[in-house]
Write a structure and sequence with these properties.
Blueprint lengths: L1 H20 L8 H13 L3 H19 L2 H21 L10 H21 L7 H12 L3 H19 L2 H23 L14
């Protein structure tokens, strides 16, 4: 059952990035922000930086979250990359204006990552750091992810370009709230309630 939700979460976050965020050059997270900084300062290819960040984070996931969570993360990262590679050629230009695509992408992205968090996996990158902080200190995962990514994106904005980073911070603010909402959402209303005793 978890595999179904992991696949759904990975698909939603990949669709959000490919359809709504990437066409406007909006970074959806800290790993992308780090890759932007590395490319600007050292001409490091984006793929190399993102792979490096995820490799380090997966090692940390094995150490602090357990092999099962790390395996789930590796599956979700792979599924996300596959979907992005499939969808990106069809959405090389924005679907709409940024003031529509940004909140829509942030909402779908937050739902996808929230599903992954709820079912014990992560989307890779800084999501793993957020889960570790949540485990250590009991902080909400979405809020932890927002603080980490915002710090990275502010640095990227100073180094590279302020306008796109402002969009990225807005994306983080919306999606982090959605992530926490998905994690705390109760499905109790779907459960059968016992009939009252007479």
């Amino acid at each position: 059952m978890k595999l179904i939700f992991w696949t759904l979460g990975a698909f939603l976050q990949a669709a959000a990035m490919s359809i709504f965020l990437f066409p406007h050059a909006v970074s959806s997270g800290g790993a992308a922000g780090i890759s932007i900084i590395m490319e600007h300062l050292f001409q490091t290819p984006y793929a190399v930086s993102i792979w490096g960040v995820n490799a380090v984070m997966i090692v940390l996931a094995v150490r602090w979250l357990g092999i099962r969570a790390a395996a789930g993360t590796m599956y979700c990262v792979t599924a996300t990359v596959v979907v992005i590679n499939f969808l990106t050629p069809f959405f090389d230009s924005p679907a709409g204006p940024v003031w529509i695509d940004l909140p829509a992408g942030s909402l779908v992205f937050g739902i996808g990552v929230g599903i992954l968090f709820r079912y014990g996996a992560s989307s890779g990158g800084m999501s793993i750091a957020a889960l570790i902080l949540s485990k250590w200190y009991g902080w909400p995962s979405g809020r932890s992810l927002f603080y980490i990514n915002t710090l990275i994106l502010v640095v990227a904005g100073i180094v590279v370009d302020v306008q796109t980073i402002v969009y990225a911070v807005i994306c983080q603010w919306i999606s982090s709230g959605v992530i926490d909402g998905v994690q705390s959402f109760s499905f109790s209303f779907l459960q059968k309630k016992p009939l009252p005793k007479r």
